[in-house]
Each structure stands twice: as C-alpha cells, then as structure tokens.
Amino acid sequence: MNAPLRRVGVVVMVLFGLLFANLNWVQFQKADEYRNSDYNGRVQVAEYKRKRGNIEAGGTALAVSKETSGELTYLRTYPGGAKYAHVLGYKPVNLADTGIERAENDFLAGTSDQLIVNRVKDMFTGDQTAGGNVLLTLSKRAQDVAYEQLLENRNGVKKGAAVAIDPRTGAIQALVSMPSYNPNPLASHDTDEATAAYNQLEQAPNGPLKNRALGEVLPPGSTFKIVVAAAALENGVTQETRIPAGSSYTPPTSGAPIGNAAPSICPEAQVTLMNAVTESCNTGFAQLGVRLGADTLKEKARQFGFEQDDLTVGRLGHGGHRVAASRTGDMQNPDGSTDPAALAQSSIGQNNVRMTPLQGALIAATVAHGGSQMRPYLVRQLLGPDRTTNYYTADPRELRRPISGQVAADLREMMESVVQNGTGRNARIPGYTVGGKTGTAQSGPGTPDHGWFIGFALDKDGNAVSAVCVLLEEAGSGGSAEAARIGGEIMQAAIASPGGR
User: Fold this and answer.
1) Strand 398-400 to strand 390-393: parallel, antiparallel, or no bridges (unpaired)?
2) SS3 sequence of 374-395
3) Vertex 392 angle, CA 388 and 397, to 5°
4) Closest alpha carbon to 177 in 137, 220, 147, 219
5) 319 lies in which domain range?
6) CA 429/CA 26 separation, integer angstroms
7) Three-class SS string for 330-358?
8) Cα dist from 392 to 316, 382, 395, whole Å
9) What is the pLDDT of residue 105?
10) Cα separations in angstroms, 165 against 39, 159, 377, 495
C-alpha cells in the first residue's frame, strides 16, 4: 500500500474513533439531557398522555389538567388565572416551566421515585395513573385579598408585592406580585401562540413575569429600623433610653444633613428609643447607627437573614422558588474605614440597603414569634394519585434565632406602639393586637418614594397568627400608610381562614 493510501486509512480510522467516542458520550453522558429536553417531541407526547396532578390550596384546585382530543392528551389549565401565577408558575410545552410547577414537576408528572409503585402497576394494567397532587399552604382568602387590594390600591400604584406568613410555622399564607399575568396562554398546546404570549409578557414595561415578592430587592426605608433597634437593645439600650435626635443631623466628616419626614417628628434634642420607633425618627436612628457601628449593624442584619444566597421557598429542604438575597451594602470609604454618612443613611434603610418583601415578613414574624425565625415554605403536603396515600407532610423547622425572647418582647411593644400611636394605624384589626413598622424609601432622583409596611397580628392569648410585608413601588405620598392598610386587610383574611396555615 502506498503512502497516500496509508494516510487516508489513518484519517478514516481516527474519524471512526472520534465518531465512536462521540456516540458513547451521547449515549451515556448526554442521554438524560436529551431525553428531558423541551425539544424532544416524543418525550412531550408521552408526558402529556399521563394526567398531571393538581396543585391545590384550601381544598381549591389552582392547577388542573383537562383531557383534549389532540396529540397531547392533557392541557394544563389555571382556574385562578393571575391571582396565583407567581406561586404556581406554569407548565408549557416548549418553554421552560417555572414556580411550583417546576419545583414539583416529577411528583406532579408521576415520574418521581416516590410513585414507582404506580408506574410498575401501570406496566401490568396498561393504564396511565395520574401524577401526584401538591397541596400548598396558601390561605385562599388571604391570597385573594392580597391580590385584590394590591390591584385596587388607593394610590394607583402599578408595581408591588405582598407576603403573609404564619410566624409559628413558616407557612406562606399569601404571596402576590403586581403586575401579574394569566398563565393559561403560556400552557397552550399551540407553541406559536404560547411563544407569542411569553414574548409579549417578557417585553411588557412593568415586568409582569418578575416575582417581586421573592426576587425584588429595594431600599426598605424605616422598616430597617427594627433591625437597628434590635442591635441597640442588645448593646445596652432600653426602650426608655434617651438617644440623640433633633430636627436635623449631619454625619461627622461628610454627608448631607438627614431630616425627618415632618417638622413635628422628634424635634427635641433627645427621645426615648420607644418614641424613636413610634414616630420613625430618622435623626435618632441615624445617630444610633453611627454609635453602634457598621459591623454591629451588618452582623445583626445577617442574623435576621440578610446576605443569605441559598434560601428557597417550596417544599422544606427540597428546592422551590429561589429567593434573592437581601443586602446591607457598603458603609465604607475607599480606604476601608467606615463612612459615617453611608452608615447613617444605612441606619434608616437607605444608602445601599436592599430587602425583599419576604425578608420584611420574616423580620416581623421573628419579632412576633419570640425571636425564632421559622423556615418559610409553600408546600404543605404531597398526596398520591388516589389522594389517600400521603408522601410528604411539612414538618416546620426553625431557620435561625436572630434575637432573644426579651429583645423580641421589647420590639413587639414598640411595633405595637407604631400601630396604636404612630404611622401604622391603618393596620389595626378589631379584637387582635397588631404591631408594625412603616417605611418610606427614596427610589431615585425625580421618582416617587416606595411605600413599605411590615407587621404582625397576635390573638387574645398572645399567639402570633400572621405576619406580613407589603411593598408599593414608587407610591409617593401616603404610600406607607396605604401599605399598612393593605397589610392589615391581608392579616385579617389569613386569620379568618386558619385552614390555610
């Protein structure tokens, strides 16, 4: 054999070798990826032959599958439409699934290892047993009220969020993001229609696909003063300790003067910590934060849950919605030393402090629950296709303990004073003890301020029954008062439907 033929033979052998290696790589390394790909039509047809399990809350089906006459046997539908969209997510044909639909996909689809007995039985009977059912913690009444009150808020705000949680267990009672969207078109079997619907939502100016309750981080304003007050109580300050206040405060060495929301708020040189919280005294908390120091404030915020990057809300310990990390941000000069101006602004929830609505609800829940912060969750139970076999029941667990029982008791009294005597009056609920903290946060040059409210409700025996955070983005004047009103309405609805907890 001459040299050219030998070279051709070697090249062919190398190509066959590479082809063989690639075939094995595809067969063993990429098989699962290709099998589960959204573009694998055969898998899609097989998946839609099995009826997907329901997602329910309080005995009401929120996501169901209906039989069709098409190639894909079952169509996923969402009877509640936009009210539950950011909790449930959606299950499309070719697009990526989201929310609880994604987190519990295997169980809902019937492919979970937990449901293997059903699949083995189907091999002998030829049946297609339905997928399992996911029961959520949501109170339908609280969810409906949260959605309707946000949508019809009195300030005409178009963007916002609300989260309500049971402080004793961590069960999410309501979770709403505004604006919302109708997930039904996204689940259409007409993939062109579904893609067009998705593109329209993706390009919408107010971002309806964004889950603001869990993923939006904005300056929390005066709601952050509860964290600062907690740090103060742990460092020698009491409710009756008088702290420097006044109508204006300029941080040492640098920074613009910090004032209060109105001339009538703490104009005196000193006020008690109780009054500083009740009146929401900016000058008092700015000076208190500088006195405590950046490290103390950042550490106390971290203990409450700031900086946590791995929190999810779904089934306990089993993924779910990812939660954006709340941040305290920088309070330093370029040389690494503390910047008093940045620290003073951070102490009133401005500067680079950023918080999710869920984090706000967790702060209120921690205070209400004696200093114990429970891990938030959305999935209460997993039931088999026959609805009699229970595969999972949530076992509430503590996430962290940021403050002692005594500090929690002091904070509760101060937050109750805010609702009784201060800026949180709109959150009152007849027959219940309500505590809270409003917050007004600058959103940027030339734009209206954000309005915040965090709060809790205790029954006549002192048991914490609900905690809430409401955010109204760019709400302007009166935004925090309207957030407090909505917060009270949501908690009252959660109280009226304890089965959702």
Assistant:
1) unpaired
2) ECCECEEEEECCCCCCEEEECC
3) 145
4) 147
5) 215-377+400-500
6) 62
7) CCECCCCCECHHHHHHHCCCCCCCEECHH
8) 10, 5, 9
9) 96
10) 38, 21, 9, 11
Q: Which residues of 41-61 are buried (b: 16+ CB within 10 A; e: fewer)?
A: eeebeebbebbbbbbbbbeee
pLDDT at residue 121 in the model: 74
Measure the CA–CA gap between 103 and 105, rounded to whole angstroms: 6
pLDDT at residue 16 above 80? no
Cα(323)–Cα(417) distance, rounded to whole angstroms?
Answer: 31
Percent of the chain with pLDDT over 70: 93
Specify if 338 maps to a domain: yes
Per-residue exposure over 449-479, b if at least 16 CB sit within 10 Å of its own CB, e if not: bbbbbbbbbbeeeeebbbbbbbbbbbbbebb
CATH of the domain at 405: 3.40.710.10
Using H for helix, E for strand and C for coil, what is the string for 208-248? CCCCHHHHCCECCHHHHHHHHHHHHHCCCCCCCCEEECCCE
Distance from the first to the final alpha carbon of the chain: 82
CA dist., res. 404 & res. 409, Å (int): 9
Closest CA to 275 of 266, 263, 287: 266
Instruction: Provide the domain count of the chain.
Output: 1
Residue 98 lies in a domain: no
Instruction: Return the percent helix, strand and coil in the chain, to nearest 5.
Output: 40, 20, 40
Kindly report, residue by residue over 198-232, the tens digit of the pLDDT: 999 999 999 999 999 999 999 999 999 999 999 99
The model carries a pTM of 0.91
- Residues that are catalytic: 222
Q: For residue 55, is it within any domain? A: no
| Residues whose CB falls within 8 Å of the CB of residue 2, separated by 6 or more in sequence, listed in order | none
Inter-CA distances, 490 with 148, 164, 365, 428, 439, Å:
10, 7, 14, 11, 18
Is 341 within the bounds of a domain?
yes
Question: Which pLDDT does position 389 carry in this prediction?
Answer: 92
Confirm if 185 and 153 have CB atoms less than 8 A apart.
no
Closest by CA to 458, choosing from 370, 389, 329, 336, is 370
Q: Is the dihedral of CA 161, 493, 377, 462 positive or negative?
A: positive
101 by DSSP, 3-state: which?
helix
